[in-house]
Amino acid sequence: MKTKAELEQDIINITTKINTEFPELSKYISEIPENVSEINTDGIGAKNLKEYYNSLEEL
Description:
Number of helices: 2
Radius of gyration: 11 Å
Shape: elongated
């Protein structure tokens, strides 16, 4: 399983790709906190990041 840092980078990469190559899909991207590593106590962990990344891939 990837680390949180790797998942965060993957999310940044795929979000950038969507915004650049498919701007019409940008409105479907859910918002996430800018720095999820700082709010880990709120329950955002690797599993949540992986699920979010998977949803971006499907988009």
